[in-house]
């Protein structure tokens, strides 16, 4: 770079340098704040199940162990807490990988119908417990071949169906549909007839740890990361995710995928 002797140019360069530095510092500050908030959220999420497990173990040690029926009940509840911890840690692991751009997609051609059926098989018991019927239109006997990361797409459908069960109406339904779109795309829809979501919450649903019901009373084992993971996976595929919801009537989450001929 040539040495500038002109005072005005020099001043401009110094000012530009200062501006750039300021932006750099602001960016670092935002990142630091983000990191701190993330850690705060993580420890908060871990605390609840940890205290639950500790509570049951302490009660057992305190004498409940001698009561045969209590012993089993409390051990089962402690185990549920541990299960919840495992889910949270798995989700954290996944979201961290995604956020550092470490989400390696492994593309292959597969039948999306089969993946929906797999998810239903895995979640049937969970749905049954709440009397929720998992429905998949019978017209999908024919395979629908897509090009995507099979495992990650199964995770997306799982998260959406799990939510439809968690926030669905008792004895309600979860309906999955696969439809053709233009331009060789398909759309997968997951629809429930549960609580629905107020419009003001919709823009924030896909944020990490965002929950409509802050009390956590209804958070039935979720990490608050499910939809953030879904969004990351769909966006890594360069596809789109949509949500439509009417409070009191239900919600529909849908996403697009690339079809193969
Ligand atoms: P969580 O572990 O809390 O379920 P998610 O990221 O999967 O975390 O979802 C974020 C929030 O979005 C939920 O806490 C819930 O308030 C809302 N939500 C997600 N899916 C549905 C649905 N099908 N019906 C109503 N609310 C939903």
UniProtKB/TrEMBL annotation:
E.C. code: 2.7.13.3
GO molecular function: phosphoprotein phosphatase activity; phosphorelay sensor kinase activity
Keyword field contains Phosphoprotein: yes
Domain Histidine kinase residues, every copy: 41-261
Keyword terms, alphabetized: Kinase, Membrane, Phosphoprotein, Transferase, Transmembrane, Transmembrane helix, Two-component regulatory system
Keyword Plastid: no
Top enzyme class: transferase
Single GO biological process annotation from the record: cellular response to phosphate starvation
GO cellular component: plasma membrane
Protein known as: histidine kinase
Naturally occurring in which organism (per UniProt): Flavobacterium cyanobacteriorum
Classification lineage: Bacteria, Pseudomonadati, Bacteroidota, Flavobacteriia, Flavobacteriales
Residues of the full protein shown: 87 to 347 of 347
């Amino acid at each position: 770079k040539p040495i500038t002797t002109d005072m005005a140019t020099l001043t401009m360069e110094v000012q530009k340098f200062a501006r750039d530095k300021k932006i750099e510092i602001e960016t670092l500050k935002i990142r630091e704040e983000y990191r701190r908030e993330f850690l705060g959220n993580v420890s908060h999420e871990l605390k609840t199940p940890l205290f639950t497990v500790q509570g049951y173990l302490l009660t057992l040690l305190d004498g409940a162990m001698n009561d045969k029926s209590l012993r089993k009940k409390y051990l089962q509840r402690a185990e549920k807490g541990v299960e919840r911890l495992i889910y949270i840690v798995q989700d954290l692991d996944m979201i961290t990988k995604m956020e550092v751009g470490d989400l390696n997609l492994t593309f292959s051609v597969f039948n999306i119908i089969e993946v929906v059926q797999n998810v239903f098989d895995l979640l049937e018991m969970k749905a049954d417990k709440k009397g929720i019927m998992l429905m998949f239109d019978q017209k999908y006997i024919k395979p629908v071949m897509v090009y995507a990361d099979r495992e990650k797409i199964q995770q997306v459908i799982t998260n959406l169906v799990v939510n439809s069960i968690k926030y669905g109406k008792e004895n309600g339904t979860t309906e999955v549909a696969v439809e053709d779109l233009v331009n060789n795309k398909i759309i997968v829809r997951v629809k429930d007839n549960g609580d629905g979501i107020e419009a003001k919450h919709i823009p924030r649903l896909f944020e990490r740890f965002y929950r409509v019901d802050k009390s956590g009373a209804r958070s039935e084992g979720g990490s608050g990361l499910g939809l953030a993971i879904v969004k990351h996976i769909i966006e890594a595929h360069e596809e789109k995710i949509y949500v439509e919801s009417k409070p009191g009537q239900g919600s529909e989450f849908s996403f697009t995928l690339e079809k193969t001929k």
